[in-house]
Protein 1
Amino acid sequence: QVQLQESGPGLVKPSETLSLTCTVSGYSISSGYYWGWIRQPPGKGLEWIGSISQSGSTYYNPSLKSRVTISVDVSKNQFSLKLTSVTAADTAVYYCARDWVAVSMDVWGKGTTVTVSS
Amino acid sequence: QSVLTQPPSASGTPGQRVTISCSGSTSNIGSNTVNWYQHLPGTAPKLLIYSNNQRPSGVPDRFSGSKSGTSASLAISGLQSEDEADYYCAAWDDSLNGWVFGGGTKLTVL
């Protein structure tokens, strides 16, 4: 059974960098698929951030592209998100998911709450 | 504001059939398939329907999806109390070259 678990700081100061990691179990990242990040600000809908393949190919939401870097570590079966220059608008629950590009995001983590505040 | 449009709320009584709509455009729903997710706060979103009308293993056949043009809908028949949750539609967007979501519909079982 494939499972994903997000981890990282729950509080980030404005202008700093948000860093999160998603650990995958029950499936080897190197076997395929893309792996993505999605967020949900309080009281709002879901927003796709970007995704990465096992070989490191990425595609990002154009609205966040200038601030986002997604990387993968197949040896640890993890992929990570970095979001720079954060503001209060980046406060959200952040989810990671397995991305079957253009078909579905079929397995999700439970999410981790990140608050941007001084 | 979400790219896909859903009603913010829906409701029904146990045993009823309810439908949730999702409206998009030619670059997303009009060109690609639609997925539906069930989400309870604090839990992982669960894929209910993929490719417009396909159910992953383990999803009851009470849940069904359809698509026509640039709109899609999720139907839940034989409504149960445990169906009370938030429901989101999603589709690939060719203009964005990425995923877009609806704003979510909160389903209340009266």
Protein 2
Amino acid sequence: AQSVTQLGSHVSVSEGALVLLRCNYSSSVPPYLFWYVQYPNQGLQLLLKYTTGATLVKGINGFEAEFKKSETSFHLTKPSAHMSDAAEYFCAVSVPGSGGSNYKLTFGKGTLLTVNP
Amino acid sequence: DTEVTQTPKHLVMGMTNKKSLKCEQHMGHRAMYWYKQKAKKPPELMFVYSYEKLSINESVPSRFSPECPNSSLLNLHLHALQPEDSALYLCASSHGKMGQPISFGQGTRLTVV
């Protein structure tokens, strides 16, 4: 069975500092991995995804993530934090659904990012 | 702007009420989902519809009843809910294939009193 572990339920950085949010996965098959962001009282917005190919994936808002199979990791980074990056971030792995015609996401517990001025 | 539209944005209902949450997408997606999210928790899958047929029911209580009238619409009918059912209910859609991202709506904030 697939699972996702996000290390650190809360990460606090200063504006302009590097953002690093950690995600490790467990999967018996090649994983499809996603990062989503959720602002207060809103839905989830896709930041980036890894399916196959290039292991360094670039997403929206200056975020990127690197798939490292040997470390079973998919950490999310941004070189310079903005105040507007403050939100909840979820790492997710796709899991086959029944019948093979659809799938569902298994989410990590989430990491709350706060950005200090 | 999200391409999955949910109505209403907020809903307060009594434990004896019947209400419905509505969701619409026009991206041609063939899979649609209902998730429930409690505060400070990740979304939990409730139901998946694939090609308008219910394909996954995550052992959700019968007081929640999903309906997929067509490929663009998804409803969640609510009846005799409990206060612990108060949560953010998220609708989502996707092409339904592994590796394709799921697009989420803005959610309906449900409060059961």
